[in-house]
Amino acid sequence: MSGDDDFKPKLGKIRSLGGKRGRRYLHRVLQAVVLAGGRHRRKRAGFQGNRIGRGAGVGRVLASRDGYAAFRQRNVIIKSRFVRVKGLKPSQVHLRYIQRDGVTRDGTPGQLYSASQDRADSGAFVERSAEDRHQFRFIVSIEDGAEYEDLKPVIRDLMKRMEADLGTGLDWVAVDHFNTGHPHTHIVLRGKDDRGKDLVIAREYMKHGMRERAREIVSLDLGPRTDLEIVRSRRAEMDQERFTNLDRRLQTLAREDGLVRVATERQSTLDQTLVAGRLQKLGRLGLAEEVAPGTWRLSEDLQITLRDMALKGDIIKTMNRELTERGRKLVAPDYIIYDPSDHKTQPITGRILARGLSDEINDRHYLIVEATDGYAHYVDIGAAEATDPSPEGSVVTIRPRMASARMVDKTVADIAAVHHGRYSRELHHAYDPTARAEYIEAHIRRLEAMRRETRGAQREPDGTWIIARDHLERAKAYDQRLGRANPVTVEVLSKQTIERQVRAVGVTWLDTELASETPTPLRETGFGSEAKEAIRQRRQWLMSQDLEISDHATPAQRTAFLATLRRRELTRVGTQLAEELGLTYRETPKAGRIDGIYRKAVDLPGGKFAVIETRGKDFMLVPWRPVMERGLGREISGVVRGDRISWSWGRERSGPEL
Q1: pLDDT averaged over every residue in the chain
Q2: Domain 569-652: which CATH class?
Q3: Which pTM value belongs to this model?
């Protein structure tokens, strides 16, 4: 073609308007979004979605009410969280935990209630929530909550006002807690409105509206705050080692050069006294410096440092409470706050002294572990469902979770690099013919996890994976996200206390220490001293059972020692189960194939084992794996290679439960 008929096609998306028409329409949309922001359009970098959902208008009105009236109202703190619901377990765990023992005034378990019932059914609420996309969780903390004998009327009134503001009925349950200095209430709200549609609450309302409604109710019940109460509350902030409203005031008073003047024309005598007292406190903490009489320079890290100090103070209080309840005393040099982000932090081994909730709104848990180094460690373990619950006294090893690309990620990237960005079982086997099936499956499981959480890899219908060029960076970012949610890994070495392990029939942590060529170092104080004594007693008991392990034993002798203990344990338990189940116990072969049905799991001193019913009238006990729990009652096949068994599932089959 030539002349006026020459043209060059420009491909675009199907049905795309393109050209000026498309740009004009997009420009009008963006302009409308900016105008929706009102006077804040220059301040905001983009659309934030604060006003999407129910209650946006009410939230804005309540947030802009008269400052003097708000100053006189009673203080209420509301923490909120939007939670994606993935199955029933997270809701069950959360409801079970907020109803735990010791949260009422008399130390009894918390009682779940709703809008119409003083004793709500937790199971029924979970069933109603089974198909919900999300749910809301709130913690309502009333500063003067101790004045109430019962918080139920306040919470029910608050939820009624929320229904009026949001224009829909709400399905919720709540539990009142009185186990802290400030009584508070946990509320779980379903993510459905009264028509069964997804409930979307505007951020404006969750941030301002709920709090103002709660403050209205409490102020009507107890009356507005008096001048004396306001002064006492503000004076209490002067000596607190946490970030306070008084610190926000100081940051507002600071000039562009970061200087704060104590005496200003706008401040009253009381304000000047509070500011001067707080600055003196900050000066003693090294967070403020007096550069001239009455003029101070605030530290750039003021807010971060004060919040870190508050967190550390709360941790110390928690440890002191847990140790005191167990008749122990917290001594400053004898405790450590475990910091997995510090590259110098090493793994620790010890027994669980206590487990608790460090952040109730985000379901973050902690462990207090008495380690073999003689110290009590406070460990933030992250989300509750990430770590299986273990009883107090269990022996565990805790390691920092490393956020870096793993060897499996590098292998996948290498294979994809030579196969045009593709990875599969067949390509992996061609790349490394010596790779075993279970080793390749570990790579597939890693890709599946990344696909579900981050969409970091794409799976084709034929099982082939499309791997991005920056796969290693995506893998590292994925592990970093996991690290924030679950900063450590907790390996349970034994669920039995060391006192029970001394005479246990089976492999215990004490036995692995006896058989180890590099046993865990034990200090002469605390748990280290107790573990050393338990190992001595265990050695004596083993000698009485014609079992002995020398400190100079060869690796083969150490392996044989543990194998003998495990065989005795499985034989004893297998004989007991045979009488109970009416089947014959058979030992797991050292090599070959296992075909059967996974019936249940049993906890033994040497670990957790699965009961596999074979095709005959017998069964075997094999090491349990977490993935097995998904296939209870299904056919399973395994290939035994020494101490390793690679499993694969068969078709589902019905049969009697053992």
Answers
A1: 83
A2: mainly beta
A3: 0.72
